């Protein structure tokens, strides 16, 4: 066992099973995310990638198995505690950024800080810094409808990282972009996550996107079939 395998994971799932109606999306999937790493979860359409991400992020409760984050069983936490944790320790980015259409780029990024109780001035200052890190300084006043796809995803990433989360969950963050915009967004995400020490769980079916990760696991029919080094015993 190499020294990296002994690292206590920031997030660890074991034996996850989840059924949607009659579809068994996960059938005993196990994976761990190490502190500060970018982990790509790949697999064909329908293999269970998004369901796995939702279980790890505490958005969906698995039917079976465990999800451990900072010594807490996410799968057993009460809803209120889960949503607090998602707000304070996790950042989430989806394929279509899901920015608030009525708000400017600056206000979209400042919003999580305002909700956490920061002043308007501080929130705007920090939001501006994060827009800069993602290469969209100067676009503060644009509303989502006025942005390109790449700009919108950069703003979404800035919003996901502005609160200093421990983990960012990114579900096909470049799925709606052309390859040039996709490269730019992924390079910005990888650089910024590494700089801030944020771990990233990146769901993608695109090998070029997965190439930005430190490590890759593949899901097939709801189980992890490669990258088995992802599964280690938790030292708790
Ligand atoms: N809310 C839901 N209701 C019913 N079935 C669902 C639901 N969510 C997912 N599924 C089904 O579960 C299986 C796994 O879906 P999931 O979205 O996790 O896979 P995926 O690998 O992310 O797919 P894609 O790459 O197409 O997004 C699929 O067969 C999907 O149709």
What does this structure look like?
- GO terms for molecular function: ATP binding.
- This is ABC transporter ATP-binding protein.
- Keywords: ATP-binding, Nucleotide-binding, Transport.
- Pfam families: ABC_tran.
- Residues 11-234 form the ABC transporter domain.
- This protein is α/β, with parallel strands linked by helices.
- The chain has a single domain, classed as P-loop containing nucleotide triphosphate hydrolases (Rossmann fold), CATH 3.40.50.300.
- The protein is 33% helix and 25% strand.
- The chain has 7 helices and 10 strands.
- It has a 6-stranded mixed beta sheet, sandwiched between helices. A 4-stranded antiparallel beta sheet has the order 2-1-4-5, with helices on one face.
- A hairpin with a 2-residue loop joins strand 4 and strand 5 (72-73).
- The two termini are 18 Å apart.
- Adenosine-5'-triphosphate binds next to strand 2 and helix 1.
- Adenosine-5'-triphosphate (ATP) binds next to strand 2 and helix 1.
List keywords for this structure.
single chain; 236 residues; alpha/beta; Rossmann fold; six-stranded mixed β-sheet; 10 strands; disordered C terminus; binds adenosine-5'-triphosphate; P-loop_NTPase; ATP binding; nucleotide-binding; ABC_transpr_LolD-like
The main β sheet shows up as: 6 strands, mixed
Give the helix proportion (percent range).
25-40%
The low-confidence parts are: 228-236
If classified by CATH, what would the architecture be?
3-Layer(aba) Sandwich
Q: In which order are the strands of the major sheet placed?
A: 6-7-8-3-9-10
- Structural class of the helices, strands and pairings? alpha/beta
Number of domains: 1
Strand content: 15-25%
* Average pLDDT figure: 90
CATH class: Alpha Beta
Distance between the termini: 18 Å
CATH fold annotation: Rossmann fold
Using only C-alpha atoms, the radius of gyration works out to: 17 Å
Shape: globular
Order of helices and strands: EEEHEEHEHHHEHEHEE
Output the CATH homologous superfamily.
Answer: P-loop containing nucleotide triphosphate hydrolases
Total DSSP E strands: 10
Bound molecules: adenosine-5'-triphosphate
SS field, number of helical segments: 7
Domain ABC transporter: 11-234
Pfam family, one: ABC_tran
GO molecular function: ATP binding
Protein name: ABC transporter ATP-binding protein
């Amino acid at each position: 066992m190499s020294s990296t395998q002994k690292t206590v994971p920031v997030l660890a799932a074991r034996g996850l099973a989840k059924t949607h109606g009659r579809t068994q999306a996960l059938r005993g999937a196990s994976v761990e995310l190490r502190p500060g790493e970018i982990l790509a979860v790949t697999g064909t359409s329908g293999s269970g990638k998004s369901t796995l991400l939702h279980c790890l992020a505490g958005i969906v409760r698995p039917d079976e198995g465990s999800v451990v984050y900072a010594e807490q069983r996410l799968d057993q936490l009460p809803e209120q505690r889960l949503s607090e944790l998602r707000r304070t320790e996790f950042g989430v980015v989806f394929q279509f950024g899901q920015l608030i259409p009525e708000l400017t780029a600056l206000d979209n990024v400042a919003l999580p800080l305002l909700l956490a109780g920061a002043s308007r001035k501080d929130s705007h200052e920090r939001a501006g810094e994060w827009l800069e890190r993602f290469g969209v300084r100067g676009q503060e006043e644009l509303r989502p409808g006025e942005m390109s796809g790449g700009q919108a995803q950069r703003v979404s990433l800035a919003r996901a990282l502005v609160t200093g989360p421990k983990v960012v969950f990114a579900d096909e963050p470049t799925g709606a972009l052309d390859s040039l915009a996709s490269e730019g967004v992924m390079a910005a995400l990888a650089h910024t996550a590494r700089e801030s020490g944020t771990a990233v769980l990146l769901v993608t079916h695109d090998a070029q996107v997965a190439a930005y990760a430190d490590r890759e696991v593949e899901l097939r029919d709801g189980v992890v079939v490669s990258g088995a080094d992802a599964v280690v015993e938790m030292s708790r």
